[in-house]
Amino acid sequence: MAAHSLTTHTVSFEAIASRPPPRSVKGVAAWLRANLFDGWANTLATLLVLAVLALALPPLTQWMLVQAVFAPDNAACRLAVEHGACWGVVAEKYRLIIFGRYPYAEQWRPLLACSMLIGLLVASCYRPFWRRGLAIAWILVLAAFFTLMFGGRFGLGKVETDRWGGFPLTLLLSTISLVLAFPLAVMVALGRQSRMPGIRAICVIYVELVRGVPLISVLFMASFMFPLFMPQGTTIDVLVRVLVGMTLFTAAYLAEVIRGGLQALPKGQIEAAQSLGLSDWQTTRKIVLPQALRLVVPAIMNTFIGAFKDTSLVTIVSLYDLTGSLQLALGDANWRKFFLEGQLFVAAIYFIFCFAMSRYSQWIESHLNTGTRRQ
């Protein structure tokens, strides 16, 4: 039997150096690294912005706060006009800016009405309140809003709509037009997808006709031209006409946004619903619309923000919203010189509401995309 020699080989192991731990993805440092210092280009842009802020903020702070005049003292404002802001114009005219020409002694009514409507809007943004009772709450709050603003019952003095103005009018026009425009936009968007040529043609004509003209033209037509087609002796309040014009205008733009969401939905979703035996209405209500609306949340909110700011155009029909009331306030020759401070005050109000809508859009988008976003 042949002998086999066994050869022993010595195997040496060399330890691998430990790798550094992964960077943290949470905390202030991680946020700064990901958003402000991610690469040389981003870092350079951040440093340039910081340099501009370092140059601009000190004199801006001096003008806005340190040397500014906050008391409603016209003489003091004129003395400090070269060095500081005159917030005294806001302190002197804020009630006219906020409430417009509404009677001074009755301004608690629009204040209460706006508080109720804003509270309802905030409640409507949270899912626990998304119940059938929310629709009833909307009806009750809107009825209370118009009762408080118009009066004529419950011992309240009557105030005609031509004296409504300021922030209550801006809030009313934007809220009502959006609430009415959204369901109309959904129907128009579905109509453009319809297999019936007549319905599709009507929806296409409506959208293209309204989107082809500026909002000012729509308001002008609603306010001045529409009454010419009414029977003689019939009058419609100018506020109602403006609401109709803004609703139709906003609905046309929203319809195109929603149609984009409908077209982005994979066809397999509809085929899967049909294979389960769902009817066309069930497929649209339970499968198509929820997913289509989820896809276009940012675009819908962008339209909402635009509609909120477009209320400033109603001054063309002699309705004085927030910006129109500012012009009324600056009609005083003693304070006309400080229009910049008044414009900044109104801009701050618009920014607060538009920024809140933008943040809510981001929250609702992340909430609805929980099951689809990448981890």
CATH fold topology of the domain at 165-368? MetI-like fold
Spatial separation of the terminal alpha carbons: 66 Å
Beta-strand content bin: under 5%
Radius of gyration: 30 Å
Largest sheet: none
Helix-strand sequence:
HHHHHHHHHHHHHEHH
The level-1 CATH class of the domain at 165-368: Mainly Alpha
From the spread of the alpha carbons, the general shape counts as: flat
CATH architecture of the domain at 165-368: Orthogonal Bundle
Secondary structure tally, helices: 15
The number of strands is 1
- Counting helices, strands and paired strands, the structural category is mainly alpha
CATH superfamily grouping of the domain at 165-368: MetI-like
Task: Report the mean per-residue pLDDT as an integer.
Answer: 86
Low-confidence segments, given as residue ranges, are: none
The level of helicity is: 55-70%
Which key features would you list for this structure?
15 helices; MetI-like fold; 375 residues
Question: Summed up, what is this model?
Answer:
By secondary structure, this protein is an all-alpha fold.
Description:
The protein is mostly helical and 375 residues long. It has 15 helices and one strand, in the order αααααααααααααβαα. The protein is flat, with a radius of gyration of 30 Å. The termini are far apart. The mean pLDDT is 86.
Question: Mind sketching the topology for me?
Answer:
Layout: H1 28-35, H2 40-66, H3 74-79, H4 88-99, H5 108-124, H6 132-150, H7 166-192, H8 197-211, H9 215-225, H10 238-264, H11 267-275, H12 280-295, H13 297-310, E1 320-321, H14 322-329, H15 339-368
